[in-house]
Amino acid sequence: MPEAYIVEAVRTPVGRRGGSLAGMHSADLGGHALAALMRRSGVDPAAVDDVILGCCDTIGSQAGDVARTAWLVAGLPDHVPGVTIDRQCGSSQQAVHFAAQAVMSGTADLVVAGGVQNMSAIPISSAMVVGQQFGFATPFAESPGWRARYGDQEVSQFRSAEMIAEKWGISRQRMEEFALASHTRALAAIDAGHFAREIEPVGDFTTDEGPRRGTSPEKMAGLAPLRAGGRLTAALASQISDAASAMLIASEAAVRTHGLAPRARVHHLGVLADDPVWMLTGPIPATRRALEKTGMKIDDIDLFEVNEAFASVVLAWAQELGADLDKTNVNGGAIALGHPIGATGTRLMTSLLHELERTGGRYGLQVMCEGGGQANVTILERL
């Protein structure tokens, strides 16, 4: 089977809600990452076949096919098209999958994949709220067909995260220990300069804003739960954030033609769905199937990136699969670094690639929970 290679990967720093990137137009934010990607790769932008960006809540500054506008505002060639996709939290990871599938099929040779999200400017679920303002029902929960299948029950990520904590017996204290480790690891990585190579500064903004140096077990223990009687607090959930990230995916032919030095090979890509009411459990069966399809064992993986939508999601995943948490989110996760929804997939993959290179690891597995009970999973092989 033809191969798909990653030849370059870059991201902006992740800005916290209301932080350094809050006032930046989404097209310019995405364009910043795209311009940096092409400059770092040394590839003529005119040779790119397509640009695929993930983005959710595509209204306002994110409307009008932000993949196309981000490419154009970056000053890149008019003839290169762009398309914006939405697979919820996994949107830009799916962008990589589509890009890899394009080059593996022989229909493209060079594809840019990435994502952008300014959650400060356009809060999560804005598209649903706007729809309601115009008299339209929410996209799924008010659908007669949905209600006929799943009943009139609450469907939310917060309920799902609580259900997972209860089913897998994960205490609030255990989740707080995990969340504190996320901040500690992220701060250690920042202080050691582990992210410096992958980040393209935005003006004077050079470092992720999310990790909290002053957090402590006592502060976490004092927070009120997100739901009455629940175990989850704001400290145990991903942070609302702003960022952009991008990768250049190349075919074998493009590698030869442009004299490229691939950094990684896409060893496996897949997507699987689980119960949409539970919503966040998809990474468990998706990872299992990825290992089955590749003939790999969990111990064959050197590093894991499992999106920290909530602490309970990662802890349940590790418990079910027997994964080593010492190899999981080693430089912190979304609890500390933030979760700019459309950009997170390629933010994680960019960090995963750089950490494999830094440590000399061979295989990295990335998996993310997504709205609707879905999960993308990618296994990279460092070259």
TrEMBL record:
- Give the positions the UniProt entry annotates as the active site: 89 (acyl-thioester intermediate), 339 (proton acceptor), 369 (proton acceptor)
Q: Which species is this UniProt entry from? A: Cryptosporangium arvum DSM 44712
* Presence of keyword Acetylation: no
**Where does the Thiolase N-terminal domain start and stop, copy by copy?**
5-252
Answer yes or no on keyword Ribosomal protein. Answer: no
Query: Which PROSITE patterns would you find in this protein's record?
Result: THIOLASE_2 (PS00737)
Q: Where are the transmembrane segments?
A: none
Q: Which UniProt keywords apply?
A: Acyltransferase, Transferase
Q: Which residues form the Thiolase C-terminal domain?
A: 261-382
Protein name stated in the entry: Acetyl-CoA acetyltransferase
Pfam families on file: Thiolase_C, Thiolase_N
Cite the GO molecular-function annotations of the record.
acyltransferase activity, transferring groups other than amino-acyl groups
Q: Which family does it belong to?
A: Belongs to the thiolase-like superfamily. Thiolase family.
Q: Which domain of life is it from?
A: Bacteria
Record Gene3D superfamilies: 3.40.47.10
